[in-house]
Amino acid sequence: MMPKFLAAVSAVALLAGPTLLSTPAFGAASPEDLTRGEYVARAGDCIVCHTAPGGDPFAGGLKMATPLGNITTTNITPDKDTGIGAYTLAEFDRAMRAGIAKDGHRLFPAMPYPSYANMTESDMKALYSFFMEGVTPVKQAAAPKELPAWMNKPWLLNTGLAAWNALFVPGKGYTAKTEKGMSWNRGAYLVEGLGHCGSCHTPRGMFFQEKAMTGDDGAFMSGAELDHWSAPNLRGDAGDGLAAWTEADVFAFLKTGHGPNTAAFGTMIDVINNSTQFLSDEDLMGMAAYIKSLSPGARPGVKAPIYDAKTTDRLTNADDKTPGEKTYVVQCQGCHGMDGKGKGEFVPPIAGNPAVLDRNPASLINVTLNGSQRLVVGGLPDPYRMVQFRVMLNDREVADVVNFIRSGWGNNAPGTVKAEDVAKVRKDTDPASDQVVILRMR
Asked: Exposed, middle or buried, 320 (CB in 10 Å: 0-12/13-18/19+)?
C-alpha cells in the first residue's frame, strides 16, 4: 500500500512538467491484453490503494492522511462519470506517467507516477485495456480533499504540483543496462518502475521527494519511515540490510512473506497478499537478482550481531529482572521463546531479526501495539499472526520491552525508545484488522 504522507507536496511556483512517452493508438482489447493487463495491475498493486475497506474493487474511497490534511483515493473503474471510463489511452498514459488527470488537474504523488514513468508502452496499453474492459464500472464520486482552506485551491495545488513534477519526476522510461542479463533488467524494471518499491523503501527529501530513483544511488531502497512503519533497508548492508540473504531468500520472501529471521508485517502484508505472490517465478527471480545486487547503502548500517545466550539465562534464572525482561517473559516468550529464536518460519525469531536491528524502532513499536494482519498465500492463511498489546500494555511497558528486545541476545540496535515515542504511535495508529484482505480483480 502506498504510504499516507506521500501526498504532501511543496507549493513552489514553477510551471513545468515531465515529458511524456509517446503512446500507441488503442484498439479493441484481446483476451491476451486483458490477461496481461491484470498481471500488470497486480505488479503495480493498484487495487490496494484504490479500494476502500469493504468497498468495490478499484472504486476508490481509501482515506490517506498527510501532514497537511486528508485525501481520498479516486475511482479508477471504467465508469464514465465518476471513474476513468472517458479517458483515452493518451490521457490514461499522461495520468500514469505525469500525474495529470483528464481535466488537467494534477494528482498528488501518493499516486506513484514518478515510478510509473518507467513503464513500457506495451504494459501501459495492456493496463488500459484491463481497466476499460476487464473491470466492473462503479459509480462513486471522489471525496473532497480535507486540506486547509488556504491550500485547497485548484490553481495553487496545480502550481505547486507542476513545480514538484518538474523537479522530481524523471519522465523517461527504464533504460536497460546492457552489461546485465535479461533477468536482472526485468527485475530492475519491476522494482524501480512498475512495482514502485522505492516509494516506501527510499528516504524522502524536504519536499517529500524520493532521494533516489535508481539503484545507482546508495540512498535508493536504503530504508524510510512511513506512517509509523520503518520500511527496511533492502541494500547489501549487514545487520539491518540484506547482506546475509541469498537471492533464493529474497525470492521466497516476495512469494510467501517469509525470509531468514523475519516475516512480512504492516503494509508489506498487503503487498504480499495482493501483488507479489501473483507474479511469475521468473519475475520474482529477476527482482531478487536486482535487489541482491544493490551495494551497501548511504546510511550507516548496524553490524550483524553475535548471538548471546546470557539473555536466555537471565530470563530463566535471574531474580532481579528488569521491567522489560518481566514483560517479555509474561507476554512474548510463549511465541518467540526464552531463547529469542521463535518457532520456525511462522513465528520469526527476535534474535538477529532485521526489523529488530533497524536503526528506526517505528516498526517494532507499531507491531507491538497493533499486531499484524495475516499473510495469505495460495489461499492459505498463516496459522499465526502477531497479536496486539495496546490494551494490555501501557506506553512505559511497551517502551521497556522494545528496548529489551533491541538489546537482548546480542542484538545491537542503537538508541533508546521512550514512553512518549510509544504514545505518539498509539495516538496516530489503529489496531491491525482481524479481516483477511485478498482483493479480487474481477
From this structure: exposed
Of the residues 244, 263, 292, the one at which a domain ends:
292
Measuring CA to CA, which residue among 205, 182, 191 is closest to residue 234? 191
Asked if residue 107 lies in contact with residue 191, where contact means CB atoms within 8 angstroms, the answer is no
pTM above 0.70, yes or no: yes
| Same-domain status, 146 and 196 | no
- In the DSSP assignment, the letter for residue 300 is P
Residue 56 φ then ψ, to 5°: -75, 145
Tell me, yes or no, whether 274 and 336 share the same domain.
Answer: no
Cα gap 74→143, rounded to integer Å:
8
Rounded CA-CA distance 15/230 in Å is 34
Contact indicator for 133, 81 with CB cutoff of 8 Å: no
Q: In whole angstroms, what is the distance from residue 342 CA to residue 259 CA?
A: 13
Domain hosting 268: range is 182-292
Residues 11 and 100 in one domain: yes
Residue keyed to cell 519536499: 207
Query: Cα-Cα-Cα-Cα dihedral of 288, 289, 293, 297, to 10°?
Result: -10
Spatial distance between the Cα atoms of 126 and 356, rounded to a whole number of angstroms: 41
225: domain CATH number is 1.10.760
Angle between the N-to-C axes of helices 362-370 and 395-407, in degrees from 0 to 180, rounded to the nearest 10: 130
Of 121, 143, 168, which residue is a domain's last? 168
Rounded to an integer, what is the distance from CA 299 to the centroid of its chain?
20
Q: Locate cell 537471565: which residue?
A: 314
Cell of 10: 511543496
| Stretches in the chain below the pLDDT threshold 50 | 1-26
CA dihedral (100, 101, 103, 106) positive or negative: negative
Tell me what pLDDT residue 437 has: 60
The CATH number that applies at residue 314 is 1.10.760.10
Q: Please, which residues bridge with residue 231 across strands?
A: 224
Question: Whose grid coordinates read 510467501?
Answer: 256
The number of domains in the chain is: 3
Whose cell is 517505528? That residue is: 362
The amino acid present at 333, given as its one-letter code, is: Q
Task: Provide the pLDDT for residue 438.
Answer: 64
Residue 298's pLDDT is 64
Give the tens place of pLDDT for each residue, 347-363.
Answer: 999 999 988 999 999 99
Q: pLDDT digits over 237-292, tens only? A: 888 889 989 999 999 999 999 998 889 998 899 999 999 999 999 999 999 999 99
**194 found inside a domain:** yes
- 158 and 259 in a single domain? The answer is no
| CA dist., res. 276 & res. 45, Å (int) | 8
End-to-end CA distance of the chain: 19
